[in-house]
Amino acid sequence: MSNDCIFKHTKEDAFKDFSFFDEKSIPIEQAKPLILQPLKPTSAIIITGYIPVHAIRFAINLNCKLNGNIALHFNPRIDRGYVVRNTKMKGTWELEETCSPVGPCNYIFCRNSYIHLTIFCTEDAFQIAVNGEHFCAFTYRFPLSDISYLQCDGHFEDIKFNQTNLQVYPDPKIFKSSPPLVLTEDNPLVEFLEVPINVRIGCEFKLGTNLFIRGRLKLLPHSFYINLQKGDTIYPHPIIALHVNPRFLYGSKEPFVVMNCWVDGCWRNEERHEGHLAWMPGRDFLLTIRCEHEGFSIWLGNKMVTEFKHRLKPSIIDTLRISGDVVVHHLAIDHVKNK
Q1: How far apart are CA 247 and CA 240, in angstroms?
Q2: Residue 125: its pLDDT value, please?
């Protein structure tokens, strides 16, 4: 299957079709390191460029002061249909994170097209958006203060750059507006469920509420997460009543699930379930989250995986967010009355 979007005859056609140019960006030379202003939370690096017809892969690197250290290596591999994120320490690559992004045009990085990338800095991670829509995150492995240079390599042309600050991410000025997805008992969702996804929960989340997520784990998964939260932004950080984060390729560790909540500006003490998980790469699954008296119970198929005691009132929940190496087929919610 081709990873190209709708065929455009020329580079000029691709330029005409592109609507995400940053007016304040300036041209930069490929492979030549560009000195960055000191990075801090709310810093944003904006990059636009052209992916040529013959493209195989390209990389955007945030290089450190110390030679041989790369804080962020963002590497779309167009020939393979996936993206690598990694760091390099003292000349040696560390554990990479991968994902195989699919969008409305099949692969999100299309040959013979222009793209707009935002690398946004939060307190603990880079948040990366493509054409205004959040694409992925990468937790810091180096402090922001170590980063000094931007460098672009590979099959990437007409590169332009801007460094700025954002108070809201994704940037509402370029985020594609679309009708919000609303989940209610009478309205299960089966369309427009491309991950990452925000869904407004249109009924009260309370004792007896059951949330059903049918999906498929991607091949070679790294991790994904499900948030039951208040609000739909990534930054400023929303209050999260339940964060469920299955992790798969973490070195030599067996797969495990991290659970936590975010309140008063920070994550609280995390809980882990390290028992056997029945998630299989490439296989469909049904995940159910039940709101019970003492807390949430998380079920995989007909087996309870783990529990998480309430730390916040479930009634604050108005948004479901899913992100990571998972495909979502179907979302449903119901409420079981107490007997």
Answers
A1: 19
A2: 96
- Which tokens belong to 279? 């998630």
Give Cα separations from 252 to 34, 69, 200, 225 (angstroms).
Answer: 37, 24, 37, 20
CB 138 within 8 A of CB 126: yes
Distance, in Å, from the CA atom of 195 to the CA atom of 332, rounded to the nearest integer, reads 16
Distance CA 108, CA 127 (A): 17
Q: Which DSSP helix (H) or strand (E) runs through 17?
A: helix 11-17
Positions of E strands within 155-270: 157-165, 182-183, 197-201, 209-217, 224-230, 239-247, 256-263, 266-267
339 burial via Cβ count (<10 Å: 0-12, 13-18, 19+): exposed
Q: Which one, of 240, 215, 223, lies nearest residue 300 by Cα?
A: 215
- Using DSSP bridges, classify how beta strands 209-217 and 224-230 pair: parallel, antiparallel or unpaired: unpaired
Residue located via tokens 């507006």: 177
Name the residue type at position 121: C
User: What is the reported pTM?
Assistant: 0.81
pLDDT band for position 23 (cuts 50, 70, 90):
confident
Q: Which helix (H) or strand (E) holds 63?
A: strand 58-64
Query: Residue 249 above 90 pLDDT?
Result: no
β-pairing, 113-121 with 256-263?
unpaired
Question: Which residue, among 77, 104, 79, has the nearest Cα to 6 in the 3D structure?
Answer: 104
CB 32 within 8 A of CB 151: yes
Mean predicted lDDT score pLDDT of the chain: 90
Q: Indicate the SS3 state at residue 101.
A: coil
